[in-house]
Amino acid sequence: MIIKSIELKNFRNYKELTLIFDEGTNILYGDNAQGKTNILEAAYLSGTTKSHRGGRDKEMIRFGSDEAHIRTVIVRNGREYQIDLHLKKNRAKGIAIDRIPIKKASDLFGILNIVLFSPEDLNIIKNGPSERRRFMDSELCQIDKIYLADLGTYNRILNQRNKLLKDMVYRPDLKETLPIWDEQLVETGKRIIIRRRRFVEELRDMIHEIHFKISGGREELLLTYEPDIDDIFFADELYQAREKDRKLCQTSVGPHRDDLSFSIGGVDIRRFGSQGQQRTCALSLKLSEILLVKKMIHDTPVLLLDDVLSELDSSRQNYLLNSICDTQTIITCTGLDEFVRNRFQINRVFEVAGGQVSEKSIEES
Are residues 98 and 136 in the same domain? Predict the structure, then answer.
C-alpha cells in the first residue's frame, strides 16, 4: 500500500500544492512552522477522516477561505483509489471514493491504513490512560469496522447516560429510564472489552521481541491490558455504581476507563521507568503496531514520522529506520544530517519553506 500523490487546495497554509511520492522513503525537511506537519495531517485525514492534532475542520481551512480540498491517490493491491475530502466551515465534511460520495465517514476506514509516529507518542507511556486508550482505538478503528461501529455507539450511549445522570438532579423521576441506557451500555461495552483484550494479546509477543532487541537483550517488556471492569462483571458493577454515578453525575464504570500497563522485571514503567525506558517502550509499541497491521491486512501500512527522529538517540534511530525498509514512509525533519551520516536509503526529498514545497535531488539536499 502506498500514497501515490496528494493535492491540497486552501488547506492550512497551502493555497495549492501537488506532491508525488516515491513508494520508498520520502523526506520533507525545513525549519519549524513551515508546513511540513500539515502535509502529514492531510495524509492522516485521508485514511481516518480526522486530524491527529484533534483540530476541527474549520481550523484546517486556509485563512480567508470558506472551504478546503484534499485529494489523495493511493495504490493498494495493484488497484488505484482516489480519496477526496471537502472541508467546510459550517457543515460536515464531504468525502468521496473514486469520485462517488459516501454517506458515512466510517466507509472510508480500511482503504488507506496509516501508522503515525509523532514526538507526542513518545509520552504515551508516562501520560494518562486516555492516551493509551486513544492508541488502541485509533488502530482498531482502522482494521476492524465492527469495533469502529461499536465504539461510536458506546460513546453515544455513554454521553446520553451522563446527561441523564445530570438531569436526574432536577428530575428524579427520570431514574426509571436509567436501566434502558445501562442495558445498551453493557451490551456494547462488553464487545469493546473483548476486542481490546484480543488486540493486546496479539501485540504482546511482538512488542516483547522488538523491545528485547532494541534494549540489546537487557530488558523484557510485558504489555498487559487493564480493563476497568471485566466484561462478565460489567452489568453487576454498573448496577452497584448507580448511586455513586448519580452523585458524580457521570458514569464511573466501563471501558472508557481502560488502560494498558508496561512492566519490566515487575516494575511499572509508566510510573517508575526512566525517560529512556519509556521512550524505548513507546518506540517498541509503534513498531509492533506496524507489524500487527501488516498481519491483519496482509499489506504494509503507510508510515508517517513527524519529526520524531530528532527525539531519539542514534541507536533508536538506527533500529527504527532499519525496521521500516519495506514500508512507504513520509518523514518530516529539520535537516538531513542523520540520514546522510548513517547512509540510510532516501528515495525522494522535498524542501518545505513558507508553504512552498520544492523537490530536491539527493545530492543538492
Answer: no
